[in-house]
Amino acid sequence: MKLFDVYPLYDIEPVKGFGTYVYDASGNRYLDLYGGHAVISIGHAHPTYVEAISRQVSQLGFYSNSVKNRLQQELADRLGDLSGLNDYQLFLINSGAEANENALKLASFHNNRTAVLALHKGFHGRTSAAVRATDNLKIQAPINRGVEVTYADLDDLDAIRALLHTHKYTAFIAEAIQGIGGIHIADGKALLQVRQWCRETDTVFISDEIQCGYGRSGRFFAFQEIPDLEPDIVTVAKGMGNGFPIGGVLIHPRFKAWHGMLGTTFGGSHLACAAGIAVLQVMEKEKLIDKAGQLGTYLMDALKDIPGLVDVRGRGLMIGIELDSPVAALRKTLLFEKHIFTGSSSDPNVIRILPPLTIQKVQLNEFVQVFTELLSTTPAL
Ligand SMILES: Cc1ncc(COP(=O)(O)O)c(C=O)c1O
Q1: Given the CA of residue 178, which atom of ligand 1 is nearest to it?
Q2: Does residue 160 have its Cβ closer than 6 Å to ligand 1?
Q3: Which of 290, 349, 352, 362 is disulfide-compatible with 343, CB 3.0–4.6 A?
């Protein structure tokens, strides 16, 4: 059987990883500044994580959501404590798209509406309503287009106010820092204003923290940089499981559950919870959220000294480096010659830096040195 060929692949195969490095079969070591799409939060093969998953799978890897699973409550308690969202309720699934899909469903159950307001350049996943809310027609199949979605710009608040006051939108969904769109920090005042209009019009405000959340920005959630912003729903995935598929929908207490409202076979399995709990333990013990903030500022300051860059932006360890020409060739050189993984974005001129939160200064220095040299010696890039 052939694999369905949807991914353009680099000719490289990591076979093991440790900390911020991955290794191929020949033993070559690669610095991981991308964490496999911002997924690796506590580093590859962290001993606490390996031990927790190994122990859990040897006891009970899975049973269904029709029986008690105390690990789900432990995960919820730890997540509430570390994020400060203790009064929210947690629904567990397996991926980011599923988190947003369920968030949009909850919104629609709540206000009985069907249209969605999303932002230009946003990315929310590949499932039906989530991909429709994603500003990229190319990845929407005709079957996805049944949901009515309007894409707006946060700097056109008049338009957003008018749209929301039609009272037809079930939800407004946005990333506090757009990831795939090229690392764009949403304007805090504008988001607060939209939040207010959502309240007035009973539109559900969904904060998609799948990429920018879980400590990456230097706060547990990137929206927490904006004082008093209180989303109705927060969606998480990626860093939550450090590679184990797990996602979560954090739901404001004013939303009431009823049996059968949402459901999943695999979501919240024993093994997924063990992974999720280990991630939170390590994040807390190693103070990774504060470190992400400090190291991000350190790296951005160093990058801003490099001549010729159009922009360096981001928060914490979620950084976009913008050049005045496409970065694909430069990223290939970084990977194949310098053995450094970086990320692309939907903007061809932007490199995304999303390393494990356990990265050290010495590794950031290594990158800055290599990057500076490359830019100065290869002007054609
Ligand atoms: C902001 C955001 N939302 C949702 C998703 C979808 O997550 P997943 O690929 O786990 O379905 C992504 C994935 O890149 C993302 O960056």
Answers
A1: 1
A2: no
A3: 352
Q: Are 207 and 114 in contact (CB under 8 A)?
A: no
Q: Indicate if 47-285 has the same CATH topology as 14-45+287-377.
A: no
Residues in the chain: 381
- Measured in Å, residue 36 CA sits from the centre of ligand 1 at 12
Radius of gyration from C-alpha coordinates of the chain: 21
For the Cβ of 175 lying below 6 angstroms from any atom of ligand 1, the answer is: yes
At the topology level, CATH places domain 14-45+287-377 in: Aspartate Aminotransferase, domain 1 (3.90.1150)
Query: For position 87, what pLDDT does the model report?
Result: 98
Gap from CA of 12 to ligand 1 centroid (Å): 23
pLDDT at 380: 52
**The overall pTM is greater than 0.85:** yes
Residue spans of the domains in the chain: they are 14-45+287-377, 47-285
The whole-number mean pLDDT for each consecutive block of 10 residues of the chain, a chain of 381 residues, reads 97 98 98 97 98 98 97 98 98 98 98 98 98 97 96 98 98 98 98 98 99 98 98 98 98 98 98 98 98 98 96 98 97 98 98 98 98 84 48
